[in-house]
Design brief:
221 residues; alpha/beta; Rossmann fold; Transcription Regulator spoIIAA; three-stranded parallel sheet; 7 helices
Amino acid sequence: MNYFIRTFGCKTNQYESELMKELVAQKGDNVVDNYCDTDIVVINSCCVTQTAERDVYKFIRRVFRESKKTKEIYLVGCYAEYIKKHNLYKNFFSRLVVNIPVKFFGNKEKYRFLGCVSDEICIIKKFFGVQRAYVKIQDGCNNYCSYCIVPYLRNNLVNKPVDFVLKEIENLVKNNFVEIYFVGTNIGKYTYKDAEKVYDFIDLSEKVLTEFQKLFCFILL
């Protein structure tokens, strides 16, 4: 089975798309670079702006016009979550116009079609075709600001265990990455308690820089 993965939106989405690529490889399937050569197109979506939504529709129509091989489209991520929560399937297909099968996987289930329940326990080993790597250290937000839709789509705050963060960075360093970017929905709220201590974001950063002294770490808020 061939998959093509298209990413819209934030750096966290980019990390999650890379994880999908690794999960596809673990299944024994292939990730291809051209959506015209694929059986399934996966769209990791965003709906923070109207432009992000519009781009999703434009891309699906392009796949419909140009790809004779694609059997299904999997819409995953924030826009899929929004559609599912508000039961907007009819609205989606009326805006889409073209007749192509689409399955919806929200943020809680975006890896389910690849046999993974959550990315909290998944570790990326490399990024495809880039010189710098992202490490997702947390997801979700509990602030519920009046102007922001993200907490309603990304759900409550979840932090990745420190050991998993370190293991992920170790794998990336072994694959010659020297620039690591921490990403997440609200990474300043990172907190994790293990048997030794309670880590906040500063503690995590210090531990990473202590263990990987030649590493350049950057923060993407």
